[in-house]
């Protein structure tokens, strides 16, 4: 069993994780000019598994019950197939703006699954922060560019796949917590990544290696950002953080992902930040801060027991 993690450390880990994931679309958009979505996912997970071999080998000799093994397999498949592969297909059929809206439902699914599976009862401040951040997402949606969203058959199919992927990641977030608390974030990340990579090799063709070898310097930098930053470090930090606080509270950090994507797009792709995006960002940050304030204050200013003389 891992030692109790200070709240500030857990929150910092989650913040770094969503920062990496927020920058990932910038690298993904660049790489998809040379790789297909399936090729990119396969390469990401294959390289990540190699990088995670040291913590994976540390699991040798540890006792795992059948229930824990089954849970690890489920989490690995939820990560690679359930989220990454399904979302790649889903986003192929819908507009990026609609995809962002659907993926932003992840904190809602995490809250519901936490109530159903772990029977969490979030504090009112978490619920208030949840509502404020959700309004921020709604404002960004209404004031954003949604002219390319339509209700055609392919859009509905793609939207269904993307929504299913968001649900799968939320299930991964809730189910990985007991494994991480017992075996550690790095080991659980290594094991679930390895398990999730194996079925992806069904999609391997010699063209995958050819396309990767023809990447330029910027392509390799983008690939390193996705593998080392997003798949390895960010997932490890996320697993570490969610093991130390309620799932509903941790899930709120996912609302920061689109905000980080906007910042990354402005910095590296020279995309314009509109007034609607600024208002949305302020509301999202406010909601996340409200949800975290109570626990932050309790750690910063712990109450001392009353002493009666």
Automatic annotation (TrEMBL):
The keyword Methyltransferase does not apply. It is found in: Cell membrane. It is a multi-pass membrane protein. Residues 13-137, 157-290 form the EamA domain. Keywords: Cell membrane, Membrane, Transmembrane, Transmembrane helix. It comes from the Bacteria. InterPro entries: AA-Vitamin_Transporters (IPR050638), EamA_dom (IPR000620), EmrE-like (IPR037185). The chain crosses the membrane at residues 38-57, 69-87, 93-117, 124-144, 156-176, 188-205, 217-240, 252-269, 275-293. Belongs to the EamA transporter family. This is Multidrug transporter. It comes from Dictyobacter halimunensis.
């Amino acid at each position: 069993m891992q030692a109790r993690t200070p709240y500030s450390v857990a929150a910092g880990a989650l913040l770094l994780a969503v920062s990496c994931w927020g920058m990932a679309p910038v690298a993904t958009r660049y790489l998809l000019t040379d790789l297909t979505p399936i090729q990119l996912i396969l390469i990401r997970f294959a390289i990540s598994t190699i990088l995670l071999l040291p913590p994976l080998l540390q699991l040798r000799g540890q006792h795992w019950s059948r229930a824990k093994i089954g849970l690890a397999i489920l989490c690995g498949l939820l990560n690679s197939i359930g989220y990454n592969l399904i979302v790649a297909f889903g986003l192929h059929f819908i507009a990026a703006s609609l995809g962002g809206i659907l993926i932003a439902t992840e904190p809602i699914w995490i809250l519901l699954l936490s109530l159903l599976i772990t029977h969490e009862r979030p504090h009112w401040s978490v619920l208030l922060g949840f509502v404020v951040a959700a309004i921020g997402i709604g404002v960004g949606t209404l004031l954003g560019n949604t002219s390319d969203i339509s209700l055609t058959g392919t859009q509905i199919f793609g939207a269904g796949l993307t929504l299913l992927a968001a649900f799968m990641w939320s299930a991964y977030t809730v189910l990985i917590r007991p494994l991480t608390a017992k075996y550690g974030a790095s080991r659980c990340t290594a094991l679930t990544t390895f398990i999730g990579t194996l079925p992806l090799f069904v999609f391997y063709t010699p063209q995958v290696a050819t396309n990767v070898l023809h990447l330029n310097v910027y392509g390799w930098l983008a690939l390193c950002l996705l593998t080392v930053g997003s798949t390895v470090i960010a997932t490890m930090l996320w697993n570490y953080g969610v093991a130390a606080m309620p799932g509903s509270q941790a899930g709120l950090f996912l609302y920061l992902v689109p905000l980080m994507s906007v910042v990354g797009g402005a910095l590296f792709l020279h995309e314009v930040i509109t007034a609607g995006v600024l208002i949305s960002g302020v509301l999202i940050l406010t909601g996340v801060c409200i949800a975290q304030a109570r626990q932050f204050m309790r750690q910063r200013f712990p109450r001392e027991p009353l002493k009666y003389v």
